[in-house]
Amino acid sequence: MRILIADRFPEPQRDILAARGHTVRYEPGLAQGELLQGVEDAEVLVVRSTPVTGEAVAAGHALRAVVRAGSGINTIDAETAARLGVAVCNVPGRNADAVAELTLGLMLALDRRIPDATADLRQGRWRKSHYAAAGGLKGRSLGLVGLGAVGRAVAERAAPFGLALLGIERAERDPAVTARCRGLGMSFVPDLAALAERCDILSLHVPATSATTGLIDRQLLARVPPGAFIVNTSRGELVDTPALIEAMDHKDVRAALDVFDHEPEAGEADFEHPLARHPNVYGTHHIGASTEQAQQAIAEEVVAIVDDLVTGHARHCVNSPGTAVTDAPEPATR
Which one of 266, 283, 300 terminates a domain? Predict the structure, then answer.
């Protein structure tokens, strides 16, 4: 098959694809106009952060599948792809460890104010007394919104810190997942509102859909305790930006964000966002999955997806070519 890889992708897996007889074009960093041209004769398009619009899908006259080398598909017009008979496949779960590691790092950074302390040191200021009043994580309550692969990986890492784990009861959840979470000492509450009221740290691990956009809004933030931490390593669209700013200004809520509701498409760009400049926010650059371990695991699964496409099977297909796409969260995110 003719494969266009439009984002960074490990060389060993590119070589494997070529060795299996595929024609591989590796063109990371394609601008949107270049993508429209480049995809014309491709049968498979592989992307990470490059947006795939309906126009781009339509431009791929031979296109059989768009493969997202990651889990979220909010940058791909899966609805148009379905109408045009193009499968959209993702790689769920393979980045869970990396995202969970960053999530725990951000919690520690909030508690110990590590970025501020580092900035003071770099400016020649010794402020031991200023940074000597961290609350500590042990015994504090961590509310997990979403118990898919990432949410569970966070729970597994948070439990040894002595955090009290809280989740939301879901009747449709796999009983094995519930049992695994209970085995970590997790307690369950009936809904998100109850979770917000009981947790010192609220950590988000659900996809961006029509149902979850703006999930963390003014009404919900009114329920969190003063001084609570909000950690978002999922999607920026989950958080109502003005509502979060209001909570930070009036309730001393603090936030650690790896994602924002408006992010540059390019890997290097100027970035202006009201949350990025707020003193109660520690931010990173949507790097949750950006470890060599995670990218290697994702690339291996992309190769497996291509292998299946050769046989006519679309592994991890998140749309149904020829029918409308639903935006309900996949089971792994619940």
Answer: 283
Q: Are residues 255 and 307 in the same domain?
A: no
Pair 85, 107 in one domain? no
pTM above 0.70, yes or no: yes
The CATH number of the domain holding residue 28 is 3.40.50.720
Low-confidence ranges of the chain (pLDDT < 70): 321-334
Q: What is the pLDDT of residue 88?
A: 97
pLDDT given at position 321: 64
Catalytic residues: 235, 263, 286
Number of domains making up the chain:
2
Asked if residue 111 and residue 85 are part of one domain, the reply reads no
Torsion of CA 303, 307, 309, 315, to 10 degrees: -70
Report the interhelical angle of 292-310 vs 96-112 (nearest 10°). 150
Residues, the chain, total? 334
pLDDT of residue 221: 98
One-letter amino acid at 53 equals T
Q: CA 166 to CA 168: how far, in whole Å?
A: 7
